[in-house]
Design goal:
TIM Barrel, binds zinc ion, TatD/YcfH-like, hydrolase activity
Length: 278
């Protein structure tokens, strides 16, 4: 099996406590598995700050290409999305102040997106109206800053798509996309990308596979959502970015493509959307 050498994990949560003991090793395993870059997503202001601190710590190599001599002991490069997740929307006391703090964080060169933001009607930790206000304020910020957005939509795909249509200047990715084929087409028509992760390998995720098998491959990004949603055969365990090749191979098999072609396409898409140097 030809190894995959240049993958991007476009969505994970490196600040999660489950990575506390071995974050460096996780990033090194990712690199050895061919995952050269990861994007770690904030879920509130504190987590956005924590992720940025991690990026500074682990990616001091900046834009330099990895040195082949030391490649085996290099960690994957860490990029950051800053923002407030819909689960945390109810904790925002002053939305304008929060937007100012996100804007300040977004000025750091490691920050490539606003995220993760969106709507979650499954858990409804915050009332829909509050989620909507926090979501839209951050979309407006993404538009003002010219940054892509990373979107969480759970049982709220319809509302998210209607909202995105009102911010035509913003592009980004619908992460862990689980909507219908029709909704996928709408997102693509709006110029958005779809994030595909471990759910692709879950036997019950028929709709995810249906969408993943039919959307234009150049609009697909790979992601783990680590530590959540580990792909089969790691399902139920802690997910990590080194499993991106499992997802790339599952997608390749589903679409009758070579895994290296899926890697090349998804990495080119991630580099283009997030401005990650190649
Ligand atoms: Zn996430």
């Amino acid at each position: 099996m030809r190894p995959l050498v240049d993958l991007v994990d476009t969505h994970l949560h490196l600040d999660d406590a489950r990575f506390e003991a071995d974050r460096g090793a996780v990033l090194e395993r990712a690199y050895q598995a061919g995952v050269r870059d990861v994007i770690t997503c904030g879920s509130d202001l504190a987590s956005s700050e924590a992720n940025l601190a991690l990026a500074r710590r682990f990616s001091e190599r900046g834009e330099e290409p990895p040195d082949p001599a030391t490649a085996c002991s290099s960690p994957a490069r860490v990029w950051v999305a800053v923002g407030i997740h819909p689960h945390e929307a109810g904790r925002v006391a002053d939305l304008e102040e929060a937007a100012r703090r996100i804007e300040t964080l977004a000025a750091a060169p490691q920050v490539v997106a606003i995220g993760e933001i969106g709507l979650d009607y499954h858990y409804r930790f915050a009332p829909p109206g509050v989620q909507q206000a926090v979501f839209e304020r951050q979309l407006a910020l993404a538009q003002a800053l010219g940054k892509p957005a990373i979107i969480h939509a759970r049982e709220a795909e319809r509302q998210v798509l209607d909202t995105l249509a009102r911010y035509p200047g913003v592009r980004g990715v619908l992460h862990a996309f689980a909507g219908t084929a029709e909704q996928a087409r709408e997102a693509l028509d709006l110029g958005w990308y779809l994030g595909i992760g471990g759910m692709l390998t879950f036997p019950s995720a028929r709709q995810v596979r249906e969408v993943a098998s039919s959307v234009p491959i150049e609009r697909v990004l790979l992601e783990t959502d680590a530590p959540y949603l580990a792909p089969v055969p790691h399902r139920g365990k802690r997910n990590e970015p080194a499993y991106v090749p499992v997802i790339a191979r599952a997608l390749a098999e589903l679409r009758g493509l070579e895994a290296w072609a899926v890697a090349a396409s998804t990495t080119a898409a991630a580099a283009a959307l997030f401005g990650i140097p190649r």
